Every structure is written in C-alpha cells, then in structure tokens.
Predict the 3D structure of the following.
Amino acid sequence: VIEEAPAPDISEEFRSSIGNSAIEAASAVGYVGAGTVEFIVDTLTGEFFFMEMNTRLQVEHPVTEFITGVDLVEWQLLIAQGFPLPKTQEELQIRGHAVEARIYAEVPERGFLPATGTLARWRPPAGSSLTGPMRVDSGVEEGDVVGSVYDPLLAKLKLQNRAGSQRVESHEKKTRWRGSDVLGCWIHSGVQIVWGPNRAVALRSLKTALLKFQIAGVPTNRAFLARLAADPKFGAGGKELTTAFLEDYPHVMDEPTVTPQLAALRVAVAAVTCHLEDSRGCTEGPTSSPWQSEKNFRPNSAGGGVVALRGGSSQDSHQVRVQQAAAGRFKVSIPAAEQWGEAQDIEIEAALEGDALRWRHAEVQTCSPFATYVQQSGALSGAHIVHLFDIAADFWFVREMQGQGEAAAAASSGAPGQIVAPMPGKLVQLSVSSQQEVSEGDVLCIVEAMKMEHKVLAPCSGQVQEILTAQGDQLEEGVLLMVIAPADSPAATEA
C-alpha cells in the first residue's frame, strides 16, 4: 500500500548491516546489475531474514532515487555497457524522506477487489505551494476503459518544487531538485511518490496531492491512501508500523463521517453543476440559439429551475430548486431529508472552469472544490452523472432527466427481449427466475458499479425464457444476462 525510504525508526547500524547482507547475497551468486533484495524484519527482536531477490528494479525504486539523488535506471544501463558505477557506496548520502503510494483501480472497502469501468475524468493535481510543478507518466488517459485483463495499476506523477533548489539533469533528461525546503512527487505506473525534508512533510505532501487528484468513472484507492497518509498512528511510525497495520488499525478503512451540513452542500453543488451545464448547453454547440436546446431556458428569467438528483448511501431522490441570485451566486432550495433534517436554503458561489465547476461556500473548506458533469456512454447512454471531489472520499449523483429516471435502465436491453449488462459491475441481486411472468418496468436484477446500484428493468411484459448469469457474477458491459419473450410473441404464447 505504502512504500517509503529511508525506512522509519531504524538505526544507521541496522541499515548498514542489512545493506551488507544484500551485497553478500548478490556476490554469492556472482550477480552483476541492478537488483532488489527483500528482507523481513522482526520488530520485537530486531532480527531480519532473507525473503527473495528480484533481478531487476521494482516499482518502489524511485523512493531510493529521491533520497540519494541518483538515477538507478541510468546506472543499470551503464553497468550493462561495462562502465563502472558512478559512485561508491561511501559517496552516497541519504537526504530527506520519500513516500510512495500505489494508485489502483480497486475498491478498498471490499478487500481491495479490482474495479473496471471507463475513466470519465482523469486529472492529476496542478502544482501548489506544497507540492510544486508536476510531471505525469501515465499508462491511461481520460476516456480509457479499465478492464479486468491487466493489472489495475494506473499512472505515474512527479511533482517538484524549485524554491531554493539546484537543477540536476540526468542522461534520460529526468529532472532532480535539491534544497532544504524542496518537496517532490512522482506517480509511477500507478504509483504516487513524494519527497520532503522529513517524513512528516512528505506525508502531508502525499495527502495534498492525492486529494487534488480527480479520478471519476472507475473506483480507486485514492481516497483511502489520502486517509492513510493523514492518519496520526501511521504518521507516528514506531513499531506499530508493520505489514499488519491495516488489521491492527481498521479505522483507516472507514470513510470520513459526513456531517448533515456537508451532505446538504453536496446536493446543492451537484444541482448547481447541472444548472450551469444546462445554461452552457443553451449557448454552445452547432447553434447558439436557446430555441434549439432542450434545456430549461426561459426568456427574461433570472435563471433557475428544478433538478432531480439521486445519490448518497440511501439512494434517495431529491427535487432541488436552483435560483441564480447574482452573477456567480446561487440560492439552492433543498427539500427535507433524513441525512440533513429540515428543508433548507443554501447559498454558494460557483463558476464553470473548462469542463468542471469550481465552487465556494463560506463555512466549508476543501482541497478540491470541484464537480464535473459526465454523460454516461455505453449501454446506459443518456445517463447523466455529477462527480464531486470535495473531501477524502469520492461522491457522485445520477441526474434523473425528464422522461428518463428509472426508465433509463430499461434502455439497457439489447435486441427485443435480450437483456444485457448496462455497465461493468457485479450482479448483486437477481430478482426473477426462469419461466417467470414479468410486466414492463419490473426489476429484473441489480448491477452494482461505482458503489451505486443500478436497476435493470423489463423493457416489455412477457416471460423470462432463459437466465444466463448468476447472482454474484462479475459482469462486463454488454454481456447477455437473460432473455424475455414478449407477451405478444409466439414463444410467450406457447409457454
């Protein structure tokens, strides 16, 4: 989950001893080249034991590069060409601390099961005063499909801060920065690496970069990693910092408590996002005429309307009224709900920045005050989803368009009577059996994707002829789930 260098809470004597053991292991077999020797340490006795040696660099090698200022890939190539190592062991110095976090397409609260889907949004964080400029070496880009065939590791990001630093160029044109107040970050093949003058600063830098990373459409461990980096127990280090940390401190797996104020604010932000997206739809596209738009435009209106949203742990639907009070200011009227109590009016400032909404509220501060509006592609084409990036947890709402709502799920059927999976996900409920009579609109099954349950409805009345999947199956988008014989078909009549 987290890899770092130097290892916290070990002495120079211990580091020298384990390092010499690694050299002895490589020398014993006459190994020449870059390699990684792994040991396991008994935190009670201080003993360490050989596990294995990998005759290659591993994903975590950049943390060593960050604290030593060397390019291990370059050194590997030099050795292969017969050149000597550029430095001796005695010339190497450890400076600062580096922490690495692997960003996976997975669901931490379900045992870190791999996840699939389409990356509706993939935006690494912009540099800030804490993390500095950024470089991304990514294996994916926005719009890519994350399938189940390959490892779910996603991308690589590097952040640097030039303040008080000296630039150093390597043969591979990679950039290093040196300085007592420098911070850096690198995401490598799904790994985010940060550097700081000490471990505490490096962890804060990691948390900030993770919170600002906007990923939507595919569940990831991003929010979990941010919580782990901010956890006091993890930050304290010590003998508790073992491979059993998550078992010993399971609270890190829990998503942060959502206050009633934040729950209501999320709905308000989502509603304003929809409202501004509608307004943009009236003035963009092949024609700028609002008369050519199906959006809720009204002449001589101050700007407003009702937005229907479904989301949250309860999956409740909310009818939310948005009224533009002034330029960039909105009054949002939210109905009563169990999550926040009585009906209330919320005022927020918001504006579109490219394809995202930046919002501000007087009483709530967040590292990433953004929301984005995505029209779902694939079998659920037409479904509109608002993704929020507010705290150390991802959240989204499904917008229920007029004439769509639950009926949109019925569009997930293929040819007449063929019911297909609307998206990649898990079949969590099978509501019918073979030969059962169903009516149009009946719930046939429920597919779970992106932590939300999507009902698959019968597109017509008829009889279930065949069921081709079972509850608990992992589904690919478009796979045939079952076949229904329409009520007026010969197959249904014969049955």
In short: The radius of gyration is 27 Å. The chain has a mean pLDDT of 78. The chain has ten helices and 32 strands.
